Amino acid sequence: MRVGVTGHIHLAPETEPLVADALRSELDRISDRPVHGVTCLAAGTDQIFARTVLATGGTYEVILPALDYRDTIEPAWRDSFDELLARASSVVHTGYRSSGTAAYVAANQELLRRVERLVAVWDGEPGCHAAATDRTVDGARRRGIPTTVLWPAAARRAPRRT
């Protein structure tokens, strides 16, 4: 089964293990076999998802929004990004040279084209741009892609890291 992910980048540190547990439970619920994940490998949710997929015996592919995408990732998350990118079964580029909303929207659209299910780690709050989690969830639902929204009871977002 091909499962995509969308979700918040900035999660409070104590929320990350809660999200990992929720993702593991959801992956176990939707498939009795390891899944093939699809992710843009952003910090936060996407990287937690990739690690959870690996821990459950699955594989994942990465969709890179733009050629400069790595440079846009906060320095604290780059080593994790590099490690997880190296472990991907495949990497797809959207064709954009520079990161930005258009590239992120294109990556989300490509992700939705490749999946049978979507898992969203989302607090239910509306986003502030066209590539926000709520827009990806809405797009999946419009396409008829089964979508599960996860937000553990004690979860909270964190301010942007510097």
UniProtKB/TrEMBL annotation:
SUPFAM superfamilies: MCP/YpsA-like (SSF102405)
Superkingdom of the organism of origin: Bacteria
Protein name: DUF1273 family protein
Organism this protein belongs to: Micromonospora radicis
Lineage: Bacteria, Bacillati, Actinomycetota, Actinomycetes, Micromonosporales
